[in-house]
Amino acid sequence: MYSSGTVLFGVMLLHGVLLVASGGPLNGPVSFRKAMTFAESLGLACWSVAWLLGYYRFGGVGNWLVAAWVSFFALVETAMFTVQVWRGVPSHYNFNTLFDGIIYIGSGVGAVIYTALIAVLLLRSGRLRETAAPSIRLAIRTGLLMTLIGSAVGVVMSANAGGVWEGVARFASNPYGEAMGGYIGQAEGTRGGNLVLLHALGIHGLQLIPLAAWLLSYSRWPEAQRYTLTALVAGLNFALMAAFAVPVFQAVPLSDFSPTMLGIIGAIGSALLASYAVIGYSVLYREAKSMTVTREAGYTSHALHNRP
User: Fold this and answer.
1) Do 173 and 276 sit in the same domain of this protein?
2) Greater confidence, 300 or 20?
3) For residue range 44-64, what is the model confidence (pLDDT) as tens digits?
4) pLDDT tens per residue, range 284-297
5) Structural domain range at position 175
6) Band of the pLDDT at 183, cuts 50, 70, 90?
7) Which of 31, 144, 192, 229 is the least buried, fewest Cβ under 10 Å from its Cβ?
């Protein structure tokens, strides 16, 4: 799975170079940025699932099945969307041809199975290996939950046929009723709540929270402090999602967020960044301390060796 993630990061970098070289658009359904985004997100998913499987007791076959499916899904999903970008046609909500429809429906089926797998991992997270520290256990459970919520937002986007929440009426209108033979996605410039940002934040929960616990495992702090900081990072990530979700599901565009809402989001975001900074400092401090102790031990040994 680590190799699959590495391949996807190579795809991301390639399309980043192509985006800059071509001067192509940053936004839109046929931008090289779209291929970059999917390669990055699914590459990180491969690495994250590979890491957390080490704490599960599925056995050799179980671990292999989970790893094989996630790798297959990530590579094929990215390949399908990348093909559409290179063809110059939208990868989502596109039923202009049979091939376009198969690409979109196939990717949707894969995403549903992946979401179900995340749910299974969350349900089985109560039986992690005894060697997993409490902070690691907490990070895995909350990271999976946040990812599951992000995936649920993705389902809402699919049913809504677009990443802009215009209200319940649009959601309930079933834009798929006459799907075949056309593009049913929302028009450029549609105003409403930004579901894409909410979805992106959620599906990266499997990196944002476990990263904190993993870094803390290299610090000199006792497990009680590691657990507290991991819980703080998890709580702030969920709070940030909730703060975004309120105006989004009121169909408020980002540009129309009230000063109060921007202040709340800014405060939560700042606290989250500060938490990561503290965690980073704890690791760097440990390394600096270790280097100092090693150097002092070397000086002492040298002095004793050369003492008359």
Assistant:
1) yes
2) 20
3) 999 999 999 989 888 778 888
4) 876 555 544 444 44
5) 147-308
6) confident
7) 31
Q: Do 302 and 154 belong together in one domain?
A: yes
Chain segment 243-263, per-residue pLDDT in tens: 999 999 999 999 999 999 999
pLDDT of residue 172: 77
End-to-end CA gap in the chain: 58
- Whether residue 99 is found in the same domain as residue 171: no
Whether 73 and 167 share a structural domain: no
Residue 46 within any structural domain of the chain:
yes
Residues 4 and 74 placed together within one structural domain of the fold:
yes
In a domain, 142, yes or no: no
In a domain, 264, yes or no: yes
Quickly list DSSP for the chain. -HHHHHHHHHHHHHHHHHHHHHT--SSSTT-HHHHHHHHHHHHHHHHHHHHHHTT---HHHHHHHHHHHHHHHHHHHHHHHHHHHHHTS-SSSB-SSHHHHHHHHHHHHHHHHHHHHHHHHHHGGGG--TTS-HHHHHHHHHHHHHHHHHHHHHHHHHHHTSSEE--HHHHHT-TTTT-TTSB-SPPTT--SEEHHHHHHHHHTHHHHHHHHHHHHTTSSS-HHHHHHHHHHHHHHHHHHHHHHHHHHTTT--GGG--HHHHHHHHHHHHHHHHHHHHHHHHHHHHHHHHHHHHHHHHHHHHHHHT--
Residue 132 in any domain: the answer is no
- The closest of 182, 37, 188 to 101, measured between CA atoms, is 182
> Given CA atoms 179, 180, 186, 187 in this order, what sign does their dihedral have?
negative
Whether residues 117 and 154 fall in one domain = no
Q: Are residues 122 and 152 in the same domain?
A: no
* Judgement on whether residues 3 and 119 belong to the same structural domain of the protein: yes
Task: Give which of 130, 279, 120 is closest to 215, Cα–Cα.
Answer: 279
Q: What is the pTM of this model?
A: 0.88
Note the pLDDT of residue 186: 84
Q: Specify the number of domains making up the chain.
A: 2
pLDDT computed for residue 39 by the predictor: 95
